[in-house]
């Protein structure tokens, strides 16, 4: 691992927004969280994967992976991050290094790949991702990117996050550091308003940002940039002129919010777009911060009027589902902001949460779970549940449905219980007031599906075998009686 990468990792984890590292002594904090993964421990995603999925939703830039083709294949489009314009982010670019490149170095191949992308596609910028192999052979992507930027008069951004550096979450932060170091603050917006905000850690999964944007538009609030969902390079470059930042997923990009506050004096708060109450609270917090930064105080009144109208409409449509879902129990296997924001949304629908995963949650996330669930919340907070434990909980009917990512679905299916995708691979948008209604409707459909009653019944051949055994027993009993 290069000295510059070690220094960057230490800097990333000297994070004022991270309670775990701030609890350390100054000497220990300077070391950072540099514990290396053991073989197989990166099954949930490596640092390269984390950096790629964090930045790939910037839709108008070319994302070039400097490494073997398998690295690009494993990271390409693994989230349903939608775009309202450019589709170049969906194109998989890789240098596809081979054995000779490992021996002689891959820097020339990287430079030629950057040139080819610029000549064919002319994106506003090229992001270059370091991988394990190219980092181990010593390719200096920072130097190549700097030379290419000078040669082609185009921003070429190095993302130095090789997979062996650590887990996916570290990669999220290292990707964010590249944006902080090379993108934010490099351009000025055409104009600014007192109502400009940045949204950080939002990836526009299945178009969720588009369910929130009309609410902000109705209040006259402008999203100056979103980092990174449906993001544009030039917008993110001007993000330093926003009046406030909203942090959606602090686990992945808290360093962007804290460092923008340090460098540019932009205040931030952590909010959620999931659930009626949390959506309303988010709108209030945005209005509060903007008013404190100089916006017209009348913004608060308009926000309250919008919230009242949207909540009334949402509750009217939710009422029919509440009657059918009352008393139902759900097991929530997710992490980060969803570990508490989805809990709130489910409770609003009258559903009891019997357990929520907190493996990928921050201290603030856990505190919010306790605040939402009240006494006994600790009993419902699951740090790391094994598939066997999930199966037992579902089999014993302690939960009526499981909400999780795709990797856990087979546990629910084996237990012959309903399952719904809540993670990034899903096909339905759950953000905002409309998203809350969609989520409840999908849970209702999953629970009401007649297939579950059918699969729990004994198979027809099992019934036949049972009937034959019963007939054989009766015949033997009759023969014994006549003997």
TrEMBL record:
A Gene Ontology biological process in which this protein takes part is: protein-containing complex assembly
Q: Which family does it belong to?
A: Belongs to the NifD/NifK/NifE/NifN family.
* Nitrogenase/oxidoreductase component domain mapped to chain residues: 46-447
| UniProt-listed Gene3D superfamilies | Nitrogenase MoFe cofactor biosynthesis protein NifE, C-terminal (3.40.50.12380), Nitrogenase molybdenum iron protein domain (3.40.50.1980)
Q: In which pathway does it act?
A: Cofactor biosynthesis; Fe-Mo cofactor biosynthesis
Q: By its UniProt entry, which PANTHER family does this protein fall under? A: NITROGENASE IRON-MOLYBDENUM COFACTOR BIOSYNTHESIS PROTEIN NIFE (PTHR42956:SF1)
Which function does this protein serve? Answer: This protein may play a role in the biosynthesis of the prosthetic group of nitrogenase (FeMo cofactor).
Task: Please provide an example of a Pfam family that matches this protein in its UniProt record.
Answer: Oxidored_nitro
Where is the organism placed in the taxonomic lineage, from the top?
A: Bacteria, Pseudomonadati, Pseudomonadota, Betaproteobacteria, Neisseriales
- Keyword set for this entry? Nitrogen fixation
What this protein is called in its record is Nitrogenase iron-molybdenum cofactor biosynthesis protein NifE
| Entry GO MF terms | nitrogenase activity
């Amino acid at each position: 691992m290069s000295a510059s990468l070690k220094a960057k990792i230490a800097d990333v984890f000297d994070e004022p927004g991270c309670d775990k590292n701030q609890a350390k002594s100054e000497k220990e904090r300077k070391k950072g969280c540099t514990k290396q993964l053991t073989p197989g421990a990166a099954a949930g995603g490596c640092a390269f994967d984390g950096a790629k999925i964090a930045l790939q939703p910037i839709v108008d830039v070319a994302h070039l992976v400097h490494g073997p083709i398998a690295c690009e294949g494993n990271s390409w489009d693994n989230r349903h991050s939608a775009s309202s314009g450019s589709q170049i982010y969906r194109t998989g670019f890789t240098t596809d290094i081979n054995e000779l490149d490992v021996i002689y170095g891959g820097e020339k191949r990287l430079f030629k790949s950057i040139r080819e992308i610029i000549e064919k596609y002319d994106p506003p910028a090229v992001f270059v991702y370091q991988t394990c192999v190219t980092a181990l052979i010593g390719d200096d992507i920072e130097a190549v990117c700097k030379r290419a930027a000078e040669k082609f008069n185009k921003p070429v951004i190095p993302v130095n996050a090789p997979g062996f550096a650590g887990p996916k979450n570290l990669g999220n932060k290292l990707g964010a550091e590249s944006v902080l170091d090379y993108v934010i603050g490099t351009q000025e917006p055409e104009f600014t308003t007192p109502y400009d905000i940045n949204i950080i850690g939002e990836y526009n999964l299945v178009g969720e940002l588009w369910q929130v944007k009309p609410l902000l538009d109705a209040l006259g609030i402008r999203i100056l940039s979103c980092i990174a969902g449906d993001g544009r390079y030039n917008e993110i470059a001007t993000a330093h002129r926003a009046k406030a930042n909203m942090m959606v997923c602090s686990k992945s990009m808290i360093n962007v919010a804290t460092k923008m506050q340090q460098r540019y004096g932009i205040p931030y708060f952590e909010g959620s777009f999931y659930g009626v109450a949390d959506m309303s609270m988010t709108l209030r917090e945005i209005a509060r911060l903007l008013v404190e930064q100089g916006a017209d105080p009348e913004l608060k009144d308009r926000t309250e009027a919008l919230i009242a109208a949207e909540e009334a409409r949402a509750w009217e449509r939710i009422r029919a589902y509440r009657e059918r879902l009352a008393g139902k129990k759900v097991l929530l296997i997710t992490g980060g902001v969803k570990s508490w924001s989805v809990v709130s949304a489910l409770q609003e629908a009258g559903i009891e949460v019997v357990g929520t995963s907190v493996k990928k949650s921050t201290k603030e996330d856990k505190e919010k779970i306790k605040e939402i669930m009240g006494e006994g919340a600790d009993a419902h907070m699951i740090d790391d549940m094994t598939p066997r434990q999930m199966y037992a909980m579902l089999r014993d009917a302690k939960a009526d449905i499981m909400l999780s990512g795709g990797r856990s679905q087979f546990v629910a299916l084996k237990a012959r219980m309903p399952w719904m995708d809540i993670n990034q691979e899903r096909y339905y948008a759950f953000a905002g007031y409309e998203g809350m209604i969609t989520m409840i409707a999908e849970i209702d459909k999953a629970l009401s599906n007649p297939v579950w009653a059918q699969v729990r019944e004994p198979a027809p051949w099992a019934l036949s075998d049972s009937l034959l055994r019963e007939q054989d027993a009766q015949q033997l009993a009759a023969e014994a009686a006549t003997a």
